[in-house]
Amino acid sequence: MADAPLAVSLGDPAGIGPEIILDAYQKLRAQKGSPSHPFFVVGGFEVLGEAARHLATDCTIVPIADPSEAAMAFHAGLPVMAGLDAPYTPGNPVSAGAKLALASLQWGTKYALSGLASALVTAPVAKSKLMKLGFDYPGQTEFLADACQLPYRDAVMMLAGPTLRTVPLTVHVALAEVPALLSSEMITHKARIVAAGLRRDFGIDHPRLAIAGLNPHAGESGQFGDEETRVITPAIEALKAEGLDVKGPVPGDALFVPLARETYDAALCMYHDQALIPLKALEFDEGVNVTLGLPIIRTSPDHGTAFDIAGKGKADAGAMIAAIKMAGDCARTRSANEARD
Q1: In CATH terms, is domain 156-289 a member of 1.10.8.1000?
Q2: Per-residue confidence (pLDDT) for residue 273, from 0 to 100
Q3: CATH topology of domain 1-151+294-341
């Protein structure tokens, strides 16, 4: 439901999650023009209160018992679901904090799946800390796919900023493993999910996709590798035959120049850094991690816990603000598309 509030998971409370959530609430409430989509934090009432005091932040925090209370409470202060908490130990992650981060993620996912929240915004977690609690997932994206009863391959990570969207087709794997993981079927499968997500949640009726090459100069006709001719080009031809607007393989060093970026709505990249380096170089403070292919909307700031600066007042809330705004926009767009269909 587009009129339901957004749920924001707390992330690891020893990281910068609490302070960027507080800062995002204050800055969004202070913005003139259209009001921010109401949101609530899933747990951490005491954590956020301590963070506000520690950082001398004048932010009222309002405890709520149910997501339905968030819209009303949002005008008085930052709504926070009571009942889940831990000590506030900035820069010093502890087991209790990891347990809170996991519980917040689990409950936030339940609220989104049930429709009590129109989208889920996830603050950064420390996966190494969660693993000690039995969290057997490479990241939050895979957890969400499992929670939605989907295979991991159906949850596609897209990094989005004001001027660029990129999709890493392979993610947290060694670079040496990438060529063996690529297949025409995998590329076409994920490209279809990206195109559907751009239509459903971003309102792009005819999405344009650019697909990167793997090798220098996109293989130079096989001189620097044959993945382009053997794997990538057949996928592009198959997608074109389905009526999708797809071009490539585009050499990685030409894909992100200003003129090229104007010709596509999303760039599909062969490996993690090929997608994330340009996004972070161009739009680090506004980069949003969006998960496509799920029945729920999920966004997240495209950065980590930053334990080294947590509690020091140095964290920039720009990416969290962008993630909250994008979640609200996607919720409204998806609802409008569903009503039209």
Answers
A1: no
A2: 96
A3: Isopropylmalate Dehydrogenase (3.40.718)
